[in-house]
Write a structure and sequence with these properties.
Number of domains: 2
Oligomer: single chain
CATH superfamily of the largest domain: P-loop containing nucleotide triphosphate hydrolases
Strand content: 5-15%
CATH topology of the largest domain: Rossmann fold
Radius of gyration: 18 Å
Number of helices: 4
Strand order of the largest sheet: 1-2
Number of strands: 2
């Protein structure tokens, strides 16, 4: 974490920019380190649009948790198909984390395991819906 005043300076100077995914269209991001967070809530066309903004000397990082998709029921997440499609492309690395990588409260690991077991018993069904 950088101090708040330094962050404010970077934002004011344009060193750091925060932009909604929808505002990426038409941009080319040269000499940039770009993070797309919560990508489980992006569709496949949105991920394509984002990834094709990569310019010279750019690094892109995409993060997401495929177990926490907040898209409407009829709109599938594009993260899983994008990862499957791009996993073996040279220059792209995929890192998958699980409960062993949790650095939050120790109970979070137990919660994740319990949910995984419930979902394994009821594949494709949202346990919160009747």
């Amino acid at each position: 974490m950088i101090p708040a005043t330094r962050l404010a300076d970077h934002l004011e100077e344009g060193v750091i920019q925060i932009a909604p995914l929808a505002f990426m269209r038409g941009r080319t991001l040269d000499h940039a380190f770009v993070i797309l967070d919560e990508a489980q809530n992006a569709t496949l066309p949105q991920l394509k649009m984002f990834l094709t903004r990569m310019g010279r000397n750019a690094k892109f990082v995409i993060t997401g948790d495929v177990t926490q998709v907040d898209l409407p029921d009829r709109q599938p997440s594009g993260l899983m198909p994008a990862v499957a499609m791009l996993r073996d492309v040279e220059g792209i690395n995929v890192v998958e984390l699980d409960e062993k990588d949790v650095i939050r409260h120790a109970l979070v690991t137990k919660v994740l395991i319990a949910f995984r077991e419930l979902e394994a018993k009821n594949p494709g069904k949202d346990p919160g819906k009747r």
